[in-house]
Structures
1.
Amino acid sequence: MAVVTLDQITKQYGPTGPVVVDHVDIHIADGEFMVLLGPSGCGKSTTLRMIAGLEEISSGKLSIGNRVVNQVPAKDRDIAMVFQSYALYPHMSVAENLAFGLRRRKFAAAEVDRRVSEAASILGLTPLLERKPSALSGGQRQRVALGRAMVREPMVFLFDEPLSNLDAALRVNTRTEIIKQHKRLGSTMIYVTHDQVEAMTMGTRICVMNAGKVAQIGAPLDVYWEPADTFVARFLGSPPMNLASAMVASSATGHGARSASLESPLTRWSPAVLGSLIDKKITFGVRAEDLFMNKAALGSEPAGLVRGRVIAVEPLGAETLLLIEVEPGVEWTARLPRHVPVSTDEIVELYYPASAAFIFDATTGRAVIGEARRDPRQ
Amino acid sequence: MADTLAERAPLPRFFSRGALALVLGIYTFYTLGPFLWLMTMSVRTTAEISTDHYAFPKKFHWEQFRIAWIDSDFATYFWNSTIVVVSAVAVVTLFGAAAAHALARYRFRGNRAVYGILFSSIIFPPQITLISLYQILVDYNLYNSLLGLTLVYVSLQLPLTVYLLEGFFARIPQDLFDAAKIDGYGDLEIFRRIVLPIGMPAIATTLILNFIQLWNEFLFAVVLITDPDKRTLPVGIRAFMGDHFQDIGMIATGVMISVIPVIIVYVFFSEKLIRGMTAGAIK
């Protein structure tokens, strides 16, 4: 188990090449399950490969267990990695795959056997030990890959999108298995994924990355309820957060956000903060699950309103997604109960609690900090 | 409709299978025929063959094999061929695999230039290098030596071997190398423990192709070797051909002797050869 610290870590391919990881600072506590989350090409896998020692670090300092490891080869970093493609050696049996790393490290044969048997037993691989990887299913292969990392008993486990090649059902099972092993081993784990469900369900904390930089680090629900910018707000959540341009205006009843299609009181921000934004353009946001067709559903809470033309009604069984066009080219999605009595091209009004509104700087996209968002956990 | 199809299916299947069997039969006869003819000639005397070219042997002259092997020095030729070809194939396989691995896996300046030069040497016919190779071997006292011929064979087969293996090795996923690195293995060990076993079907393919090519090679052997006791099998067989007389029976016996190792090598590696040739065709 170990603390992992990335201090201004940068990766640039060649002196004039693209910077794919740009001055990243992450501190991962001992025993923590940190998820690096982001879209393809955001630099999360490169960051993980630098931690593993598979990519050179262009600048910055990387420490594992209080030891700077920038120049330490992968084999001496005391890490184990699970790959998206499983990376099982196809010419070796399951048992040989599990023991391959231990044999190189000159463990006694009895110790190798003990660790392989233990890992196989925990992961349900005992009947498969003599099989070759080609004779295993995707889920079994992924368990072997996990077992190969476990037998090493490393300080840090690294996972590079390990569930991407599995079907939906197996993905859930294997996800549970990894969470279970994290609880059992208590090791530091760093997990790369582009799947927000994996990030939300597995991570102690998540680190959202965008264009080679850290966009936000925090506990999953904190990041969900308090996104640092429009990128995080859109990336975390399905459907993504609804955004539209608006202006901040002042009236007798207080400050509000207005545009041709929306009207919202702004209750989470101090008058001083809102005063500096009056008559300025902002990006206004509301999550899909905070939109309602019936104003009465909000009770006595101040309500905001958005108006739009229905583009599509998508009944999903347990719920219905309503897509409306609030401005030309700007679509919002509402997650509503099963029965939605509207039809395409109809103009509808949707309501949301004022406390569910987010505002972002229109130029930088950074969130304007207000009082903590109403947290449904409480 | 389904019933109609079910009723109709067997007849076309019979014809399609029959047609396939017919085509395969004709092809087998076409390719195997000359070999069977050679087998019969190898146990007949030249006089018998001259009387009736295609007749089945009335008496099997097995002593022709003894005469070829002992009296006509085929044992020496066979041994010379074995030394030259096995050495050349071993060197080509080892160095070819290592070079192919380096070209497929490592990014270094000039990687594609080296690959391009190797590829260009495959395009040109090897005969154009004959005179210069002759001169080089004379300059280095390697002319008329088995070592010189071995080195020439290595240079002839290495480019194609590297070209074929590079294509196969490049398809081995990078993750396997990364996993082995994290497991604690260095570059040479990864080559030995990962690349060679995984690449075995492709290596077996090049091995068998190189063996057959070099075992039957005549042109370079006849130009670069002059001593009778250093002849390889194809040159040795040529000794039965005179200006005015050809000992067809002994030539057939010699060819049979020379064919046997090729068959053994093929039988031993054929499964891997097929796997190598179809590698990538199915996932």
Note: The interface with chain B takes residues 49, 52-54, 73-75, 79-81, 83-87, 89-91, 100-101, 104-105, 148 of chain A (CB under 8 Å).
2.
Amino acid sequence: MNRRKQLREGLVTNNPVLVQQIGMCATMAITTTLFNGVGMGLSVLIILTCCNVVVSALRKIIPEEIRLAIFVVVIAGFVTIVDLLLQAYIPALSAALGVFIPLIVVNCIIIGRAEAFCQKNTVKDSFFDGIFQGLGYTIVLIIMCVFREFVGSGRFGGGLIDIANGFRFTMDGTGGGIQIFPESYGMSIMNLPFGGFLTLGLLIGLMQYELKKFEKKKKMAERAAKELALQKEVEE
Amino acid sequence: MKDNKILKLAFVLFVICAVTAGVLGIVNALTYQRIYDMAHAKEFEAYAVVLKSDSGYAEVEFEEEGFPTVDSIMISNDGNGYVVKSTFSGAQGNITMVCGVDNDLKCTGISIIEHSETSGLGAVAAASSSAGEAFRAQFIGQDGSIALSKNGGAIDALAGATITSTAVTGAVATSIAAVDSVN
């Protein structure tokens, strides 16, 4: 399978959030600071990759009738592992994301990929599918976080970047971020779920517009090439 | 469906569940102690934030029927007051909070140890951000008649998180009443 094509599908043409439109609940809920977005994105990436590998490795022995039950068991297992590891080693992230880490169990990106991709493809392809789809998800989360944080509280990199004592990255979520304009001038509605809907809507609209434009261009180029070939034939 | 087919399905599902459970058991064994220690350290850190004591704290007996939300009352060995730990319901789930109360039955500070409030709304009450600190600072110096400003008190509720604000305010009042009962 073409890795380049797989990467493009994950990031752009078949992006899990913007094109497949799955896994949107957590997307809207947690994209309030960059710390949350990066943490959630990477957690999903890891869980998705692990589940993809296990599901595709077991695809020959999973009976058709109970495949969903098995997917759920595998997913819940990996989510619990990540949840426990986060609680033990990155407690700030676990506290910030709260219930949304256990809720990855029912995030349709993972079960969707297991059903649509891994049960028909090899372990290697599924592994890369997990990484690329996870990256696509993470990038969308990061874009939403940056936008909402900036418009909502005039900040960049909340929780992740600390500039109080020189520029540094923090893993304990205490970084204040870079204040671009005073917080009181921000539209705090962007920090509420409403802002999540608005941002996601705008992003999906923009994405679809670009995809349509790209398709049109491709069609026009094809047509031009055909006409050129026709012209050549006539000339000859 | 034939009987042996059902048995085969059940067997496959059982094996996969058993393997998953085994792996989870191992991960739990590896992380349990660390998570437990951290929760404990966090609680003691919170005690120091709400009521500073140089010589530690000791548990006090209290009437548990009268205060169902109160988990424990600790007296400061410095004699400057009490720390009350309580668990009560917030907007999304239980909130565990410690509240310092001095000998004049005034709140000396609150710290939320555990909660599952909505990120960006109720969670601000526990956050280390400036908004969270401003919210918690309002409780310092309040007495048993504490109430939200919309009910004629002095506490401004968090925007979009009235339920959380009401719950925390109520818990502070309960904590003060509990200390009053043992004082």
Note: The CA atoms of residues 140 and 181 of chain B lie 20 Å apart.
3.
Amino acid sequence: MASLTIRNLRKSFGVVEVLKGVDLEANTGEFIALVGPSGCGKSTLLAMIAGLETVTSGEIYIGDRLVNSVQPKDRDIAMVFQSYALYPTMSVKENMAFGMESRGVPKAEQEKTIARVAALLQIEPFLKRKPGQLSGGQRQRVAMGRALVRDPALFLFDEPLSNLDAKLRVDMRTEIKKLHQRIGKTTIYVTHDQVEAMTLASRIAVMHQGEVQQFADPDTVYNRPANTFVAGFMGSPSMNFIDAEITSTGGGAPAVNFPLSGGGVASLPLHNGVADRAQSKKVILGIRPEHLSRQSASNSGKQGFATMSALVEVVEPTGAETMAVLKFGDREVVGRFSPDEAPKTGENMPLAVDMTRACLFDPATTRLI
Amino acid sequence: MADAVLGATVVEDREAAVASRRRLISRIVIYGLLGLISVVYIVPLLVVVLNSFRTNAEIGAMGLISLPQSFRLDAWPQAWSDFCIGGQCNGVARYFWNSVAMVVPATIISTALGAINGYILSKWKFPGSEIVFGCMLLGVFMPGQIALLPWAFLLGKLGLANSVYGLVLVHCIQGLSFTTLFFRNYYVSIPDDLLKAARIDGAGFWRIFWKIMIPLSPPIIIVTVIWQFTGIWNEYLFGVVLNSGSNQPITSALVALSMSGTTVRTYDVMSAAVLIGALPPLLVYFFGGKYFVRGLTQGAIK
Amino acid sequence: MAIAGQSVSAGTSTWDRIKKWTPVFIIAPSILASFIYVFVFAGWTFYISLSDSTLLPSYGFKGFENYVSLWTNRRWSVAYNNLLFFSLFYVTLAMAFGLMLAILIDQRIRAESFWRTIFLYPLAVSFIATGTVWQWLYNPGSGIQFMVNALGWTDFQFALTTDRKNAIWAIIITGIWGSAGFSMALFLAGLRSVDPDIIKAAQIDGASWFRTYRKVILPSIGPIFIAVAVVLLQFAIKTFDLAVALTNSGPGISTTFPATYVYDFMFQRGEIGQGAAAAMMVLAALAIVLVPYSLYLVWRRRRESRNG
């Protein structure tokens, strides 16, 4: 059953169209991440789901109810804001009670709910404090607590972790995941951080310029990105794009070719019928950094692996892994290697490319072939 | 080597001595100037305070600016209830209470309206609300002279001519622009997310105002109340034009008092009267100085 | 189910529409009052200035006659010449004095708030009270002259308020005394808003104290100078209380100001038409100062938003 259904939703501010026909649905208990660069319309979409922005056209259903013109308070939702938006003059407890008071929940029940949620989030020690006396992580917890006491049909998160420092952000991410697993509420989570989206969501909607580019589970979004935008946005470092041409090699098996710096041509064989789906000979070859590795006995003869060599320009060790900028013709390509097979600057590195994981895109439409 | 080090410390010492002497001189100049100017600022206040306790004969003989030789309190009760102003010998008490009756309701009403207006113009914007705000801002700059005739006419029609209630109305409307400006500028800095959260929590227009905005407002309420209180208390033009005789506020009475001194001036009583008139805003200033200055700077630069 | 949902939402939306307009209903009286106060009052006074009103408002139209007789009136020429003279010295001196105080206080002095309290207290006192006391001090028979004479310098003369030529200086001096603290407060706020890193950079560049102020700090608070000047000019144009309390336009008519002229003609002489014309001139003078200033503010905001 769908907890949230959005059909052909549009939003304009004057002549500027920020949402251009969005379709989305969330099944009960799902964790949906809305991800995209700033200005892609994800926060506007969330505000419209919350009822804080009016709908220009299209429909929003929460459960079976059309909520286009329902007040935020009547939508059975709860929201956690980027700035937390805790009422600064109220104690933590009063913050959590505020919404229940508005709805006329009896005092005894309020106490019970607050006690339960406070225990769940381990915020009992600061119930009497004001938000100003709490640390960033504690405020974050309180903001979630204020949402949890509502026990809504839909949880909305608007970049809730972006005000935390890096370490705390990772910890809180895990907590949110645990929390969602425990309470199992449908959640819509806006973020610009693709790692957050990947780790938390059961499905990800990648947005760009007011449109949903792809709406799928994290694995599909990462491995079969719908177009070059999604491919480039998800994953860090980004997927490498190389302009290439499809040819048939001597044996008749198709391959992608692109020129190398020395005047030579790299020819990487393709697998299982991808070439047949291509509309034209020209394609964009997409290879993720981790699908490049040093040629070795274990991978050089392996099915689906192509070999080539490339000049190493820059090497950036990060400890756990080493990034290297390689020269593919006149283009720079990033590879991600384990430290023991890491290249040296200036080396002409023999590479094995995992072509089973490579993506081809149509240069005209930028779509995945 | 040792010599060089020694030489260096000697030079350093000399430099340090020069630097500290220069610093001393500059400090003397700074405090000297500040002290001198302070004398100019304090003397007028001191003159009034001291003269309200001296005998008039002594002031006549020694001048206003001299050390007191006598001390008595007679001038104060005289100024309060006996002194003759414009043919009536009831002191300034009556005018003082007129001012109180004018300033208290006018301050409360204009501050309350300003809070609500500022809340609406910053958080519940509607089409044209920016233009509305712009028009209200114009009121800040209107010279009182332009409004004199219309007010006189309007108050006459409303049956409020020559009454303290009339002045309350005048100051409420006159102050509306300022109070709205103060609150609006304060409220725009309150994050909108707070109101969104409250709306999701089911709070409406008034609940958000009372439960979220007002608890955040004490600083701006104090600034506005002080601004309105001192401004209205010290106002002269409307009081003297729109009201007459025993319905005038204290500022008009002070002018009448210093003009009426055709015979020998009773500086002792007049000093006490001036102090009575200046005391309420001065007390407000000395107790709420920080907020008073904040109001001044905010009022000047929007 | 969806239809039911729709009907529910339609029901709420009527109620919501009423609620949506609550803020407008609440603010409407204030808007109306402000509108009347600003536009109707000004328009009415303008109309009176074109009428043949004398002792009481009357609505016989006589065009710009009141303005013509205003501008041929010798008293009016005294009034606006006084305003120009007063504005020039009052504004520049109050600014200079306030800036000096602000710089002195900015030198990390002890008991800063004590000094500030001293220089600002005149702002809490009415111009009426200030003017009354200073009038006593200017009085040669009991005030400053009397004191200096008593100290032994018997030739000393200081009788501004009784001297036709110099009476305006009494108002200028008292005006500065009353408002220098105000310009000090604004300048001090400006000085404190300068990025301390810029000042450190200037010190490392070897700039002297004086040069740091002249070349680095003061130029970066340029907008404050304009703001202070505009506010003080406004005070100058509205000068009424001080002139009444200090000299009551005298001796003779020598310290008449436009604002006192309005009062005089409207309520002492029963020449409402001409008083209204003078009031319109006061409004025009304010507009001359404030319209360019608000255009400047708009321009600056645009430029800032374009750059940032």
Note: The radius of gyration of chain A is 25 Å.
